[in-house]
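Why predict the complex rather than its parts? Because the way molecules touch one another can change local conformation, and only a joint prediction can capture that. The input here totals 465 residues.
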Amino acid sequence: MSCWSVTLATLKKDIRLEWRSKDALNSMLFFSLLVVVIFAFAFDPLAEESRQIAGGLIWVAFLFAAVVALNQTWARELRNQVLDAYRVSPAPANALFLAKALGNFIFVSVLEALMAPLFVVFYNLHVLGPAWQLIPIAILGTWALVVNGTFFAAMSLRTRSREIMLPLLLFPISIPAVLGMVAGTTAVLTGDNPAHFYIVLLLTYDVVFTTACLALFETVLHAE
Amino acid sequence: MKRLFPILAVLTAIFLAYALHLALGKATPTDAQQGDVYRIIYYHVPSAWTAFLLFSINFVASITYLIRRKPKADMVALVSAEVGVVFCTIVLVTGPIWARPVWGIWWAPGDIRLTSTLVLWLIYLSYLVLRRFSTSAQTQMLAAALAVFGALDVPLVYFSIWFFRTQHPQPVIGGGGSMDPRMLHVLLINWLAFLCFAFLVCWSRYRLELLHREVEEAHAMKSLQSRAPAKTSLPLNRSPQ
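Output of the joint prediction:
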């Protein structure tokens, strides 16, 4: 089997599992809904202020929610020793990694598509800059979160209390990406300055860390 | 080697005391604008250089471990990260102490050097947390991978904040800043003293880690021997020292 067919098969399996159980999506949705509501109570912002802070709130909510999904990525494969079976099979490790990262990307993107209108309603957002730029920021930002998230989730599998380990590993490394997403989104919402710089930053981050993940995943998967 | 250590420790203590004397003494000129507050530079800057040097050593050792799988490389990585975090903490504590009287604020969010140092500190803290939480057999591999990620992250952090207006003074060496040669002399002497100190701490921590691993190894071998012939593979990935 080629790399792509393994990726596709694993991705299909993950999507089908998620479609039937909806575990990750439901918990992410409810979690980010809670974050939105709690932030709305905590800040009670006016329209002008909310434009300034919404970028930060949106991405913090998605970051926390993504951790919920990322933690479940590999835990699923531990039951019945699926991961061990994968390790002894001749299938390339990177195919598995890509499938998992793409799966997480799809789940988090669905979450964002569902939550974004809610943010607009709750914070009375009105975009002043070029709104289309939010799409590359969202795509690149989400990939930045999930590619490292998937990698570190695989890493924290081998630690004690792995649910706590993932954010501890992921958040420090993600700081430049979070900065790019938040500042880029704020730039578009307020229309004060161009967001191109942040899109380039996110693209660089994605390229660097996707390469690093693909280069090191096999080592981490087979670490023994 | 064992006899060399106390001698070096005493020499380093004397060297540190001499550096302190120079840093606080009247012979070193007082800054024209800042007054005596500036003297914290003799601790702040050498600590920063030492921390960055140790983090670079950690990166090189981690790469070496990933390629060669030598336990010694992993021990060097661990030791340099631990001591580096300590020096980085000194930088992050002395910085605000200086900034409060000079800038009027403790911390300048968005400043490139402050933020990137803070992120660097956070990354290596997470590295140490991973080492603490990881189960023993795979720790080295995972930690080395994380160190590579951390090293890749640093330029990105720097790049991501570079176009914010930066408050931090320009670097003393190679940054176009001018400094009285007498001050620079004292600064370099202090750095040398700090380096000796860091080396001493790293050395003793390395020896401790070596002993620790030998004890672990001995325990593992003992429990293997006391059991019936083992049929599972050994949970050890390092050769006996």
